[in-house]
Amino acid sequence: MAKAFDEFYKSTAPIAHSEVPFIVVTESADDCPDIRVYDLTVRTPGDNPRVLLQGVNLHFKPGDRVIFTGASGSGKTTAVKALMNSWDYGQGLVVMPRNVKTMLFSQAAYAPNANLRTILNMTTEGKENFTDRELRHALQSVGLNKLVEQIPGQQVEILIDEMMNHLKNTSHLKKDVGQVAVDFVQRRIPEMFSTVQFVPNEQRNYLRQSLRTHVPESDFDDVFHRVADAMDDALMAPLQKRLALFAADIATRKRGKIYAYTPAKIKYFAWSLRRALNKAVKAYMNNDDTDDAFREIRLNEYQTRRVVDTIVNHTRDEMMKQASSGPMHQVFNAASWPLSLAAVRMKARSAVNEIVQAVTFFMEKQVMTGDTMSLSGGERQKLMIAIATLHQPDILFLDEITAALDKETGAILYKDMLDHLPKHTIVLSIAHNTHIMPYHTLHAHLENQGITVRRIAQQAPGVTPTPSV
């Protein structure tokens, strides 16, 4: 122990160990994969500090699963912070292995203000390490199926699988395969999706491959496009419905008060509106402005055209209801045609700006970020378990990671996480409850400013093991 201190300090300056005013955390110089703690003393901050741990020595090896217990205030969380180099109040030396991936999750389960894909990857946006399918499986493994919607394409893939099973079960009825598939997606999509989405290219290819086993080659292209278009239509139906109502309002307000539109003027307005909307909506969907960094594109080219058609057709129909076709009005409009065309174009551009703002607001509201996640405490902890399973860390610190879950669910998910971690991962877990103790190899109990580490004797399933003396 003294030798370790001497080796660490001799390159800086001669100093007594007791004079070091903080906890030193360093990396191993000998490539040792163990966690080694020498003479660790931990105090609370302030003018009247309280000693939580005094002269503690610990040694954990790769593969150790350690559960920390102790009374409230005994210093469990603070000890972990000291090992993580985030607590300076005290003295001692912590030697961590070099070049390892270390992760810490607490019961608060904080999620940064980023989209779900970025949160799961724990990296900056656009620097993903995992495929969307891997993210989907991780969420499903912890029971967070509802979040799969936030990974565009993966919920669509689940829909395609369900549709193919449905086709297998109904193929003996000799019905038109395309119509059976269309009826299924139109019925199932409102049940599966709460957000507007589209069928990405990867999932369109998946749909194409899946349908080939059910559709003759001579009819394949027609059936494929019917089904794919029906999926895109059903996926964007909530947006179409919202914009249809918005279009009726625009039609009423843009009609003008100086003169009533004639059918000819309305056709020109619709043409101007369509031309401007095509450009504006496509520009919005291709927007990668950093001020809108959390928005994910959830419409494709086909759906963009349908959005424009919805707006233009509803606006034109609403204006036609109020159109004037009397002889005097026709004469007036013919005489003022050059002047009124400018007013028509101006009103069309104004309508476009309102529509794009409405689309922007509608689409942004459905993208989940860390600040807008409406998840319970238990769901947030499930998300952290999914992240740990995905990233496979070498050292994993867990602070009451199942505290918000019921005992049975917490134990199942906790065991599954440990089973999927690398065998060499060192797990240091804080827990008040002992129901997860069977999944550990060491029990570290904090009491009287010390830590007693004992090996856990494995017992029959369902029996909470006791530490060996």
Automatic annotation (TrEMBL):
Keywords: ATP-binding, Membrane, Nucleotide-binding, Transmembrane, Transmembrane helix, Transport. InterPro entries: AAA+_ATPase, ABC_transporter-like_ATP-bd, ABC_transporter-like_CS, ABC_transporter_sub-D, P-loop_NTPase. GO terms for cellular component: plasma membrane. Residues 35-466 form the ABC transporter domain. One of its GO terms (molecular function) is ATP binding. SMART domains: AAA (SM00382). The keyword Transmembrane applies. It comes from the Bacteria. This is ABC transporter family protein.
